[in-house]
Please model this.
Amino acid sequence: MAYELLRKGKTIQIFDNNFQGNSSKVAAGIINPVTGRRIVKGWLIDDLIPAARTFYKRIENLLNQKFHHQRNVLRVLFSIKEENLWLEKTGDSLVEKYVIESNDYGLFKNKITEGEALGEVQYSAQIDMPLLLEKSQEFFSNEGMMNVELFDYDQVEIETEKVVYKNIEAEKIIFCEGHQGRKNPWFGDLPFEVAKGEVLFIKIPNADFKKILKHKLFIVPLQNDIYWIGSTYEWDDLDENPTEKEKHSLIKKLDKILTIPYEIVDHKAAIRPSTIDRRPFLGLHPEHNCLGILNGLGTKGASLAPYFVNQFVEFLLEKRPINKEANIDRFKKKD
Model:
């Protein structure tokens, strides 16, 4: 949001308390065009992928850092039924662009347990989110736009034509708070349905995996022989602390996948800012149009953010409409 507003010539200030439970700091950053057992095309994916490529390329050029990695997803199929469905999808006009028949495990050969068959997803990608956040914080700090502190709701003064926070006067405050948005006094009543996730970071020396593997877990290449392994879902125990129970669960599944040695280097947890209808929250407060929200990107933030940030900025600056499925007006009470 900050990058896009700057590109449009706006003056901004960011308030970020460097919250360690931020799900983006733990996320693998996968952009996956087809998902689920039924192998269906993701919502708006034909528009999301080009928007993501354009945005991340622009930020890579600005920061002189590589974040966006084109990586096909190898999907292990575990039954003849799954294989037949995959083959059927390769001829389905809705998804054939993204799915291809494959029997080549490539660099995974003899390093993982194989299934009944194999499918491959193209036009997928992985965004190095922790690195992107780190370099972005450096950039905005150097530009004098970053305030690393807790945002104090009590110091927001809403006036007729502006909003004042401490000594800053602004046209708008846009809240991009992840699951912490549930505590926001203006937007906290939106129907979040958050989920905790836990992941492992492991080291596999010289494995040199380039593609993303979708087995019983995702195995996602990062840097320096480090791989992201995940993830779990927990709907009740909603804190940011990793648990031994889920760690052992991940290890147990991983041991059934990998046939080569690995080393666990980290174990993290975070809470995904999911929503009741699995659609983002975009829009302005119904009573205070100087307050806005961009949230609820759930598990697909890497692909959803570039597209919907652009749409929201065009709404703010040019009065263009927001997708009805993402606009928070969908939750307005009907008379």
DSSP finds six helices and 21 strands in the chain. The first helix runs from residue 2 to 7. Residues 27-129 form one domain. The helical segments are 2-7, 45-63, 80-89, 129-142, 244-255, 301-318.
